[in-house]
Write a structure and sequence with these properties.
2 copies of one chain form a homodimer. By secondary structure, chain A is α+β, with helices and mostly antiparallel strands. The first copy, chain A, folds into 2 domains: 79 residues, Orthogonal Bundle (Arc Repressor Mutant, subunit A), CATH 1.10.10.10; 105 residues, Nonspecific Lipid-transfer Protein, Chain A, CATH 3.30.1050.10. In chain A, 42% of the residues lie in helices and 14% in strands. Chain A has 11 helices and 6 strands. In chain A, the strands form 2 sheets. The first copy, chain A, has a 4-stranded mixed sheet, covered by helices on one side. Chain A has a two-stranded antiparallel sheet with strand order 1-2. At the A-B interface, helix 1, helix 2 and helix 6 of A face helix 1, helix 2 and helix 6 of B. Chain A binds a DNA duplex (20 and 20 nucleotides) through helix 3 and helix 4.
DNA sequence: CGGGATCCGTTACGATACTG
DNA sequence: CAGTATCGTAACGGATCCCG
């Protein structure tokens, strides 16, 4: 939505949120920065169709509103600045999760593994199904591996920071997770077919499946 | 965002969701219909600033995409059609909740009770803080009253349909709930000041406060 | 009077080209 | 590499008008 005209007339937190997050591309830029810090060119490549002028403008207004900050590149060479999320920007992750979960049925069947971003798979198809009730009393760490990317998860909400020895390691590709959540496959079938490999204790696996609703 | 240009190039459920929900005004129209079925003129009045042509177009495309349906008015007189949410549209309520919660700190302090919509207060400041872990094992019904509007809530997620005798009735105005969530007031203070009145068992009240994080 | 449709000026967007 | 400049097009906001 246009940055100049806002939903000012409404006393509503949704309207306020959309004033900041509702512009075209804004949430997708944010999603990119959840995955990793990125430079201008990275973002441009990962957001097919965005005009460079629009990207410039969005990055500026997102910085103004405290969603992101720019950090001088530590890479040395020619690169100048890297864009990073702020804590306030990270608070919008639940918004992205809710959107992702709603959009999952609209997603066509993946044709190729490389189509599916690892972050989408983990955050949408696994973390998005986290069941805090099922997780009560469990304190375990899980390591999700998608290709060569690693995503630590915890049975305790917000307890994923410490990089301790995981109780369970799960290896697979991104597509399998989407297939499972679109009901073309069950977790059990994927394991039997060797599409998902697990290493760890039997009870950790049982907990994992219960906490993330995997049959 | 423009309805014609979509985030087609991305294999991402967030992009898909935004293709449908991301247009300017769309989520706010949906929010209106969560509150109540409405006619064209109602929507226009409740969405200050929307151009009638835009409203027409949004209603059409939202219907095309299965978010809403139009129902012939049962009211008789001059009115023709009433807009209602579909089940698919209702599935987007978590998106609105996430946005609302994110937007709450951006909301200025309410100046007048009538500024605050009852639905915002209940859905954002109460239901949005539901803690399923705290609710485990509790099966109670709560009735929230804001002015003359009533909102049944349940300690069991999705169990609010049956209109049984509530275990707890809470009377207040919308502003108080916003004040509480913006940390200008605690629940206990509001009760002592008579801004919130409760009727029901002592344990139901304790459960309610625990489940919805009210100190 | 409710429910829109038409027209118009302004703004934002997308595509391509260009520059420090 | 990291943007800026320019330009044509599409969408928006506001006002007005039309029809039952």
């Amino acid at each position: 939505m246009p940055a100049t005209v806002r939903y000012d007339a409404q006393y509503c937190p949704i309207a306020r949120a959309l004033d900041v997050l509702g512009d075209r591309w804004t949430l997708l830029i944010l999603r990119e920065l959840v995955i990793a810090d990125q430079r201008f060119t990275d973002l441009r490549r990962n957001l097919p169709g965005i005009a460079p002028t629009v990207l410039t403008q969005r990055l500026r207004s997102m910085a103004d509103q405290g969603l992101i900050t720019t950090r001088p590149s530590d890479g040395g060479a020619g690169a100048r600045s890297v864009y990073t999320m702020t804590a306030r920007g990270r608070e919008a992750i639940p918004v992205m999760r809710a959107l992702a979960r709603w959009g999952l049925p609209l997603l066509e069947e993946p044709t190729d593994d490389r189509d599916v971003r690892a972050w989408s798979a983990v955050n949408v198809a696994i973390a998005g199904y986290y069941d805090p009730v099922a997780a009560a009393g469990v304190d375990e760490r899980y390591l999700i591996r998608i290709g060569d990317e690693e995503f630590p998860l915890s049975s305790v909400r917000g307890g994923g920071a410490a990089r301790e020895e995981p109780d369970l390691v799960i290896d697979s590709n991104a597509r399998v997770w989407i297939d499972i959540r679109q009901d073309r496959l069950t977790f059990a079938q994927a394991r039997r077919a060797g599409l998902i490999r697990t290493r760890g204790g039997r009870s950790a696996l049982a907990n994992f499946r219960r906490i993330f609703h995997l049959n």
